Amino acid sequence: MQRIYFDHSATTPVDERVVVTMTEYMLEKFGNPSSAHSFGREAKAAMDKARESVASMLNCDPAEVFFTSGGTEADNLALIGYALANRQRGNEIVISNIEHPAVKAAAIELESLGFNIKTAPADRYGEVTLEALKSLLSGQTLLVSIMHINNEIGTINDIERIGEHLCERNITFHSDAVQSFGKVPIDVRKMHIDMLSLSGHKIYGPKGIGALYVRDGLKLHPRQFGGKHEAGLRSGTENLPGIVGLGVATDICRQIIDDEASRLTELRDELFARLDEKLDAITLNGHPSQRLPGNLNITFQGVEGEALLVALDLEGIAVSSGSACSSGSTKPSAVLLALGMSEIEAQSSIRITLGRDNTPQDIDYASRIIVDSVERLRRMSGN
Ligand SMILES: *Cc1c(COP(=O)(O)O)cnc(C)c1O
User: Fold this and answer.
1) CB 324 within 8 Å of CB 6
2) To test the ligand 1 pocket, which listed residue (151, 196, 351) has its Cβ within 8 A of the most ligand atoms?
3) CATH architecture of the domain with residue range 4-12+257-381
4) Ligand 1: does its nearest atom lie under 6 Å from the Cβ of 179?
5) Ligand 1 centroid to 172 CA: how many Å?
6) Which residues are catalytic?
7) Strand order, beta sheet including 92-96
8) Which atom of ligand 1 is nearest to 324's Cα?
9) Biggest CA pair distance of the chain
10) pTM of the entire structure?
11) Facing residues of 213 across strands?
12) Which one of 199, 201, 326 would you pick to mutate in the ligand 1 pocket, going by the greatest count of ligand atoms within 8 A of its CB?
């Protein structure tokens, strides 16, 4: 059976070139970057190179890049690390109502530590606008964390406009860019971003590696203590294969970012056009145009999203209902509910995220299977 992977926002296959380089740094160049001998120096040089790759993708200094165990740790370190180190500057933290659980849960943790959390609502397209944020800002605002691209609906926030405003008001700005890094251009200087999270496994790199960009001069309280690795911000012998892998994955993204963005936008629009032509009562969730190139989030009226996921899986097509992070639960997506959708509508939705391995043939095959499955499920439920 043909298998088609349409869940690239959950994770991606690791690029073969990444695997080859990682293998080299496990089998031969396996030194500890802290060691003074040639094995250690070789490892340190590779780590420096990966740091430069990430920095040049963000337009920051390599010394402003700190490797972590992934996007979740980067988000936690940004919010909790910054809040704990800068308590004297204010007590209020502003996030949006569609942040990833890694940001939401870090904010809840801060609430239990005495911080006041304010939540900006996304509009019906899933955009968190500067206008929605402004009314929540005060002299007590310590930190604002707004994601660049939402992982479920793919809406791209205008973080440059938000960053400009926060910079003028001297408020620190963090953005979770796990879904955008390597896929759409990011310039932390131009966008006035103070901290930014990214992850390896969403960009054809390995799982368990990520990074936090921290603007030079910002103080963060570490979450992990020991041998003062990563400038004391994140102790523990560095995940060298993971770091090297993230570096290679980043370099590959940089080479193809524009071509891949337009290719995926075209495939995405073609897939939606075909579904929309053949099926009644479907709606695209998120922003019509300002969205992640490979993302579709669609409500199929009268169809249980979970049932559609299973039906497609039986045909070899992997999609997601709600976000992968909350799958296993049958709760409707918190993001879709936050956009004002009813529970029924939210539960009738699936997310399709295309990636590097998808082809126009995949779109042909999948559009036929999705149309057939939706029609069959609607007939079965008498819709
Ligand atoms: C996947 C994801 C994360 C978590 O990254 P991990 O590396 O899996 O911990 C955080 N934020 C967003 C928006 C994500 O999509």
Assistant:
1) no
2) 151
3) Alpha-Beta Complex (3.90)
4) yes
5) 21
6) 325
7) 65-68, 210-214, 195-199, 172-176, 141-145, 92-96, 116-120
8) 1
9) 72
10) 0.97
11) 65, 196
12) 199
Average pLDDT of every residue of the chain: 96
100 lines ligand 1 (CB under 6 A): yes
Instruction: Convert the pLDDT of each residue in 273-304 to its tens digit.
Output: 999 999 999 999 999 999 999 999 999 999 99
Mutation choice for ligand 1 from 179, 212, 239, 335, CB with most ligand atoms inside 8 A: 179
- Where does CATH 3.90.1150.10 sit in the chain? 4-12+257-381
Element (H, E) at 349: strand 349-353
Atom of ligand 1 nearest to the CA of 202: 1
DSSP-derived secondary structure for 201-230: TTTTS-TT-EEEEE-TT-----SS-SS--G
Q: Which CATH number fits domain 16-252: 3.40.640.10, 3.40.50.300, 3.30.565.10, 3.20.20.60?
A: 3.40.640.10
Using alpha carbons, select from 80, 87, 138, 91 the residue that is nearest to residue 117: 91
Q: Is the pLDDT of residue 93 over 70?
A: yes
- The residue with tokens 């090297």 is 244
Q: Where along the chain do the CATH 3.40.640.10 domains lie?
A: 16-252
54 alpha carbon – ligand 1 mean position (Å)? 17
pLDDT tens digits along 315-370 = 999 999 865 455 555 689 999 999 999 999 999 999 999 999 999 999 999 999 99
Measured at the alpha carbon of residue 362, what is the angle toward residues 308 and 11, in degrees to the nearest 5?
70
Cβ 71 under 6 angstroms from ligand 1: yes
The position carrying tokens 């995926």 is 264
* Distance, CA of 33 to CA of 137 (rounded, Å): 43
